[in-house]
Amino acid sequence: MRPAPDDLEFFLDPSRCIGCQACVQACGECGTHRGVSMIHLEYVHRPTGVQTAPVVCMHCEDPTCAKVCPADAIKQDDRGVVHSAAKPRCVACSNCVLACPFGVPKMKAEIDLMMKCDMCYDRTSVGKKPMCATVCPSGALYFGPRKFIEENRREEPVNEFQFGRQTVRTKVNMMTSPELKALPFDVLDFLPWEDKDFDPFALARVRDGAPDVAQSAVWDEATAGKRCSGTCTCH
């Protein structure tokens, strides 16, 4: 007996991603995507490693992309899935691209339309898995009952993200350290500091299982100019 759609959730674990691109290829095969993949892989820090992380729409409870759309082209259904912009309404203004705190929407210039992950709503609405989750060999993308995650994963699912003073709650869960109840995203943590006594690595929140380069990746470029005299060719 197939579980009811409401009993299934999407879980994302970037530390398990092996960069195989299977999810990207499968996404384009979803019947509603017309051959266009709506998931992409980001490199954690290309110069120091090959660790990748899949990027899917987090489907915010109060989607900023929909709130800033001047044409009311982005809709959220009663299951909490935030859909791509409707072609007849989208004016290709890119407001949603700039406003999304997770950097998910992409403007397809060739068709003047914003497209993004819609959690394969034609499949998930009837209890099937999104295409990406059906092919992920490492479990970085999982769609199923929460009970399975609680019994088989060491990490805990989190669906609250802190951007400064704003708390964003999402339909998609991110796997992280059991000690964290919400994931902080603060751009100030990624800026170089002039105070020489300040230790930037003290702020790094790297959970078990995350790539070893995660800490150095944040600061390598920011401090490169301070590590050399400026007469070399490294920059």
Quick synopsis:
By secondary structure, the chain is of the alpha/beta class. 19% of the residues lie in helices and 18% in strands. A hairpin with a 2-residue loop joins strand 7 (156-163) and strand 8 (166-176).
Question: In the CATH hierarchy, what is the class of the largest domain?
Answer: Alpha Beta
What portion of the residues fall into strands of 2 or more residues?
15-25%
Count of individual beta strands: 9
Counting helices, strands and paired strands, the structural category is alpha/beta
pLDDT < 50 runs, ≥5 residues: 198-219, 229-235
Helix content: 10-25%
The global form is globular
Query: What is the domain tally?
Result: 3
Layout: helices, strands, pairs:
Layout (H helix, E strand, L loop, with lengths): L8 E4 L9 H6 L12 E4 L8 E4 L8 H4 L27 H5 L6 E3 L4 E3 L5 H4 L6 H5 L5 E4 L1 H7 L3 E8 L2 E11 L6 E2 L29 H14 L8
How would you portray this structure in words?
This protein folds into 3 domains: 1-56 and 119-186, 2-Layer Sandwich (Alpha-Beta Plaits); 62-116, Alpha-Beta Plaits; 187-227, no CATH class. The termini are far apart. The chain has helices at residues 22-27, 64-67, 95-99, 121-124, 131-135, 146-152, 214-227; strands spanning 9-12, 40-43, 52-55, 106-108, 113-115, 141-144, 156-163, 166-176, 183-184. It is of the alpha/beta class.
